[in-house]
Amino acid sequence: MKNEQNWPVLNFAEMQDTIETLHQWIQIVGKIRLKTMPWQNHSWHTALYVTPSGYSTHGIPYQGQIFQIDFNFKKHKLLLQCSNAETITIDLKPKTVASFYNELFEKLSGLGIEVKIHSTPNEMDPAIPFSENTVNKSYDPNAANALWQAMLKTNAVFNEFRSDFIGKASPVHLFWGAFDLAVTRFSGNPAPLHQGGIPNMSLEVMQEAYSQEVSSAGFWPGSKDSPMPVFYAYAYPSDASFGEQKVLPKEAFYSPEMGEFFLKYEDVQNSENPEKTLHDFLRTTYEAATKISEWDRTKLEKK
Hints:
By secondary structure, the chain is an alpha+beta fold. The protein folds into two domains: 12-132; 141-299. Helix content is 31%, strand content 22%. The strands form two sheets. Strands 1, 2, 3, 4, 5 and 6 form a six-stranded antiparallel β-sheet that branches. It is globular, with a radius of gyration of 19 Å. It comes from Sediminicola arcticus. This is DUF5996 family protein.
């Protein structure tokens, strides 16, 4: 499914079932991080991170110890590491969300980690409780590995792009709500109150997340309603003039319905220089956001 020297091919039709199951699994792990980490602005404490082998919670303080949960897509294991115990593993293989959920919490309890989460998915409709979900049960190791490899390469470009900005910027986060890898820049100015509208997502959370002006970009693997991996970029607040701005590469397009610019993953993957193609998209959509909202770029960027 991939060439070591190139960005992997992502065929959503072939990967859909695995992506949908993984999305549920990372929501469960992300909710554990949500319940155990101290609050950080814009819900940054909830996110996961791309690692050399998969996705990770990174270290979570817990009753004087630290634990960490890692998805390993090289060995196809879920690793439960705790500073006062031996590492425990769970096989990543075809199994229902309910089975994954029950096995994970049983193993955590065996480590002395007792966590109760809100046990239904966010940003999904329908939102079947994890313990009852026997619908999603697919795991193709090649698909899981290819998706991680795509995020690994995206993560590198996002981090390089982030380094040019000296204002407030998020880390490169894997948000489990929508299953997207994202990086966000802030102008330093307050934003209008967000009106919400995301399925199974608290209005209060959305309003805090978008309490300041932002220019945000990310990678999303697609869904059954939009079966296409894409890069996206948006501004908040925004208006129709955002979509009128000139951006690169030429394959990028604006969706009036979504209020965002998009660039198909395959257009990046097939380009002569994928890293430059993606960086151009990040840079020009950011410039479009700063233009419509009149950001003071002299205070926010390296000279």
